[in-house]
């Protein structure tokens, strides 16, 4: 929708006033926003035009006006400049409070969610990395007895998977001694780590193990079957789990969440129906010309009924160039969008760097 500079100014002032006060906005309240000053009648006429255009509405006939979902959409698309100061504040807070050298990926993500919810007053939502993109950090073969070994796989998320792997049958009269078998399994582990580190489990499980070479070719079938089993388990793991923080904050600080029935439906979605919410939060966005990769869904734009009175701001975090998870904020449509966009993007950038760093380590 093409608005004149005056119409943009009135819409922006109305949104900011309503976000700050949660009260319907009258023309008198906006007089101080204009330099040089304009009359209350001019502002009132402009607000009337914006109401006819569907960008504002009156909750009651005698009340001032409040932004509609469409009004917030125009505001976000045309008038918002994300806060650079808050972007750097969030990045600094994450760096100071989260030790990415010592924390597991899950602990890092939980810490980020807590910091975001505290700073914003909204519900922070962080998805765990997709299992299908999980990459090998370390692999180890450990002898259990002369016929079996334990295959242990550590992923870049620090999730550990293990399975028993049958060892190739030896001639009964020529069984290898345990020390020799330990050395051979260690050499094989070193070889596999060198060849496979950084590859996804899905990719590793489908490799042609006939290329192992003569020294290890007798292990090929056992490795193929064992890694296929680990890949299967990974697909059933917590990759679709959403880490949630800030429900108490939003109940305390946002008047829109004071209605018990609304809160109950949102809580049910967050606690019991995460599979529906996960695909909505984890949405890869083309950064395009703006360089931003943030999605903003406002009110009725949300396809899930429990959050159609909410705004959901989310950004993907990446491993290299591959999006593997997402950071989101859920709050009222009366959201400080310039702050929410900056905070979500800062957190997504920090997590992307942390995941890449942990894999390199």
Key words describing this protein structure:
alpha+beta; 3 domains; single chain; Arc Repressor Mutant, subunit A; 5-stranded antiparallel β-sheet; 3-stranded antiparallel β-sheet; elongated; 361 residues; 12 helices; Beta-Lactamase; Enolase-like, domain 1
How would you portray this structure in words?
With 361 residues, this protein is of the alpha+beta class. The protein folds into 3 domains: 5-79, Arc Repressor Mutant, subunit A; 84-128 and 241-360, GAF domain (Beta-Lactamase); 133-237, Enolase-like, domain 1 (2-Layer Sandwich), CATH 3.30.390. It contains 12 helices and 10 strands. It has a 5-stranded antiparallel sheet. A hairpin with a 2-residue loop joins β4 and β5 (148-155). The radius of gyration is 27 Å and the shape is elongated. Residues 286-291 have low confidence and may be disordered.
Element layout with pairings:
Elements: H1 5-21, H2 40-52, E1 56-57, E2 66-67, H3 69-79, H4 84-97, H5 105-120, E3 123-127, E4 136-145, E5 148-155, E6 160-166, H6 178-196, H7 201-205, H8 220-235, E7 242-245, H9 247-253, H10 260-272, H11 274-281, E8 294-298, E9 310-319, E10 322-332, H12 337-360
Antiparallel strand pairs: 1-2, 3-7, 3-10, 4-5, 5-6, 8-9, 9-10
